[in-house]
Amino acid sequence: MEKYKCLIVEDEILAQNLLINYLSKIPNIEVVGTCQTAMEALSFFKNTTVDILLLDIQMPDLTGIELLRAIQHPPLTILITAYSEYAIEGYELNVVDYLLKPVKFDRFFKAIAKVLELLNLKNNEKTSTASDFGVAPDYIFVKSDYKAVKVKFEEIIYIEGMQKYVKFKCKDAQIISLLSLLKLEKILPTNDFLRIQKSFIANLNHIIGIEGNQLIMANKDKIPISKSIKPQLIQLLDKNGLL
């Protein structure tokens, strides 16, 4: 199992210990350091690289936001604070998630799950594979108009949920099937597909642009993207750190 290194930057010892306790329940994350100030963290980063940063915003010298701006290549970051007004500024820095104190374990786990998914994708590991569900690695068969229809993953531009049905928008066809987006999320390869909004799954390979809170797809369709998913999507698309 891949072990990921985590640094905790938190000036409150009780909050720091709580995060350490939470992380102890997740076997593939190792806490390699704790800092109480942003200046300590800057010194830490000079000698050590980490995969995950748990970062408090309000600290004695520099704020967590200022620390993030000072790090040339920051790790995947989860911001933690008691003040919700920093959320927008944090997302502008492409943080993975934003947690409000007091942090509950179920909400913390959801944030860590997002980070682990991004790290697994980065390392070409699939958190769930198509073969786990008894299907071929590059296509599925679905029922449509009383027929079994083969749908190749590479042909799918995006999928739209419509109550009990889904609509596959493909390069040369449109297929409607009695399925749920939730089930498809478990089947589709996670390095190519992302649920970008409650009613849409997009093929990352067919995104040609981002316009506000909409994606421009290869067939020129524009589909909505959730504000909470947008930072994660940008990290997946921005391979060279240009955005």
Produce a short descriptive summary.
By secondary structure, the protein is of the alpha/beta class. It has helices at residues 13-24, 38-47, 64-70, 87-92, 105-122, 181-187, 230-237, and strands at 4-9, 29-35, 52-56, 76-81, 97-100, 139-144, 147-152, 156-162, 165-170, 174-177, 193-197, 200-203, 207-211, 214-217, 222-224.
Kindly describe this structure.
With 243 residues, the chain is an alpha/beta fold. It has two domains: 4-122, Rossmann fold, CATH 3.40.50.2300; 130-237, LytTr DNA-binding domain (OB fold (Dihydrolipoamide Acetyltransferase, E2P), Beta Barrel), CATH 2.40.50.1020. Helices cover 28% and strands 32% of the residues. The protein has seven helices and 15 strands. Helix 2 (38-47) packs parallel to helix 3 (64-70). Residues 124-136 have low confidence and may be disordered.
As for the number of domains, it is 2
Radius of gyration: 20 Å
Total count of helical runs of at least 4 residues: 7
Strand adjacency order, main sheet: 2-1-3-4-5
CATH superfamily of the largest domain: Response regulator
CATH topology of the largest domain: Rossmann fold
Q: N-to-C terminal Cα separation, in Å?
A: 31 Å
Can you tell me the residue ranges where pLDDT is under 50 for at least 5 consecutive residues?
124-136
The CATH architecture of the largest domain can be given as 3-Layer(aba) Sandwich
| Average predicted local confidence, pLDDT | 86
Helix content: 25-40%
β-strand number: 15
Structural class: alpha/beta
